[in-house]
Design brief:
With about 200 residues, the chain is an all-beta fold. About 0% of the residues lie in helices and about 50% in strands.
């Protein structure tokens, strides 16, 4: 579950997470351009005051969106609208960044980066699941030597996009992307390849 506190909101009770490790709390900035701060329960015990809003919570886990091992790596979005960006991070390394996707006056914008992780390229598969929300998955390339299946799902259900989920998901390839012989599986409402960008299952 994802709990979002908008500007001017308050809660007299306690936010209680469910079972599993997918709970998250985001709090809107108090002023200026709209953005959100993610609660880190390992650094801020309950009750926590974030952007002027005090929140009592229980059962909220540290957000761990990257899971798996050297063979199979999975990146999971939150239950809200996310921007998930993949990019190279040196020899054999890929980086992922997470931002909130924010709708302001009818247009989408990206908030500040609230999570960054770097991992070794998996040998079997790399899967990105936007999960619920109007997600944007951006590929700015992969770590050098990447050679595995690449699966990009705006909303993953039983392996591929569930068209009935009601979200508006998009995958953008903004830089050359090569899977080094691995399969490429991309499902979203829109798939956009930037001008002159190459996307290939070759090395």
């Amino acid at each position: 579950d994802t709990f979002t506190f908008e500007r001017g909101s308050s809660l007299s009770g306690t936010v209680t997470g469910g079972s599993g490790t997918g709970d998250a709390i985001f709090v809107a900035t108090a002023s200026g351009p709209l953005d959100y701060t993610a609660l880190d329960p390992t650094a801020t015990p309950s009750p926590a005051t974030i952007n002027g809003i005090t929140i009592a919570y229980a059962g909220i886990d540290a957000i761990t969106p990257v899971s798996g091992d050297g063979t199979t790596r999975t990146i999971s979005g939150t239950a809200s609208a996310d921007v998930i960006t993949l990019s190279p991070a040196g020899d054999g390394q890929t980086k992922v960044e997470f931002q909130r996707r924010i709708r302001v006056s009818g247009s989408w914008t990206a908030g500040s980066v609230w999570k960054t992780e770097t991992f070794s390229n998996p040998t079997g598969s790399l899967t990105v699941r936007g999960n619920a929300g109007d997600d944007l998955i951006i590929v700015q390339g992969l770590g050098s030597g990447f050679a595995a299946n690449l699966n990009l799902y705006g909303y993953e259900s039983n392996g591929r996009t569930d068209a009935a989920n009601g979200a508006d998901d998009e995958v953008q390839f903004q830089a050359d992307t090569f899977t080094g012989g691995g399969d490429l599986d991309v499902f979203a409402d829109r798939i956009v390849v930037a001008s002159s960008v190459k996307v290939s299952t070759l090395a």
